[in-house]
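Hi R.,

As promised, here are both runs. First protein below:
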Amino acid sequence: MSHFLLTKNLPSLTGNTTCSALELVTKLCDTDFARRAKATDFRSRAWDALRVSGAGDGDKVLDAILVLFAALVAQSPHEMIELTQKEDFTSVLWGMLTTLNKVDPFELVGSGANEVELKKAGIGKAEKLNVSLTP
């Protein structure tokens, strides 16, 4: 799959969007994949695919994935410059970070929070299942 993402136009994240988005970000943690991604405009296309899929628009899990993606890209100043030139980059991240209610969906699910706590944080059963299936 990594070769497909690097060599083809990034498709919109279909099917289970959250799992696809998380897989995309997880791939960036792979050293070999990240090295190959640097040789292409993968990060720019990945940002666009995440945004088209709804990341940055209020979905708690997709928003957290988008913030994680930005943090991974920020490890390389050159790659970060490319993303900061995107029209929506700063406004989307700023909007998400200023509206945080100090509840990290990944931490909440990982800590074994009960259904009531998850529901209060806006995390449904489907989101909980998606996050708990991550490696």
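And here is the second one, sequence first, then its structure tokens:
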Amino acid sequence: MILSPGHPHAALRNLVDILDIDQNTRLAWGPIRCERAPLPNPDSRLGLPGGRCPKMPTERRELLAALGMLALLPACAYIGADAAGLAAAEDFAVGSEGTYYDARSGDRLGRRRLLKRILPAPIILLGEVHDSAVHHRIRAGLLLDWVRSRPERPAAVVFEHLDREYDDALRLAQKRRKGSAGSAKPAKPAKPAAGADSAAAAEAGGAAVRELLDAATFDRQAWGWPAHRPLFEAAQASGATWIAANFSRASARRLSRDPAAEVDPALQAVLDSARWSEQAQRALSQALLQGHCGALPAAAVAGISRIQRLRDAGLALPLLDASERRSVLLAGNGHVRRDHGVPLYLGAYENEAQVIGFEEVPGKTSARMLVDLVGAGRAQEFAGAYDFVCLTTMLRTGDPCANLKPLPAGPAPAGAGGVSPAAPTQIPSR
């Protein structure tokens, strides 16, 4: 049953949480039936086709039925709440691992309302704190839902985690697996397998992920494997094409040794056509200084800024094929930001893209308004950087800058300004 917030039995929502029913889908439970509120496959992680409900253990079904019988007697008039009531109720149905906000208005969103806003977009950008396993799990579900919402359209997943030098090898590996060139349409959701079949399917999926990561020479140590495993598994399960797009550290080192070295003409063209400004440059420089705990010499900022911009151009390049396919970018928050990141390189697609930042906050992650949770200053920052933001609880302890020694002041050595030292606030430094 869908209860409006003012309903005398709205507290039964808590029962859903206690019984571990998935909080990211809205289910209408009655004593003898179950109906999904209208939403196309709202949580693909369940492996369920749209319009069906997960089976619950018998004792849980009986408990819900018993409590439902008590609640439903005076409550039948609340079945079929109006649209305004549903929207209000959805604000309370936030996921247990994160809370979504409209970054501009500051309003809290339920997952259903977020999906309604992002599913039609031809491009979505999903940020991350690189070492947050929670972010990767949440984004895996969003990725699957977004790809599968339009099964008739080809889709691509663009990875910061894979270096663009190996994209050709990655494409060949995908063609071998798919059996024919150019077959990149997302697979339709399959019914969940059971028992040995489920284990075999999981093993096959894991083998596919390993093969593609090996083809792309994925640096498991640098990226803290297996933190990102849910993302890669979701990308494989979606049937989308993988694209390796990072401007690698090896490329950065070559450019550092020889700043006059030629850059890939395609990247340079994207760089030159960006909607860049002095304000964007100031925002990027400030972000680089902050990301390196203030230990970055001023003389090194220009060279490192150039590398960061080339990375953003490299990540943007595959997204410019939006007329041919839909694309999702998986990258750090610093790359997806609207004030100095990839959106500025998207040209006509800048306003069609949807940007979701994934940020961490100490303590609780939910309040009615974003400003009440993070304060006016950070809320204003989020408004300029993202369309939506997902907040999760910060799990790490201690100051990431505590053990970082300031770099020597003074002019940078010739050709040495292009490679960023390790940035402890964005792990790993890529």
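A quick note on the second one: The longest helix spans residues 195-215. Let me know what you think.

Best,
J.
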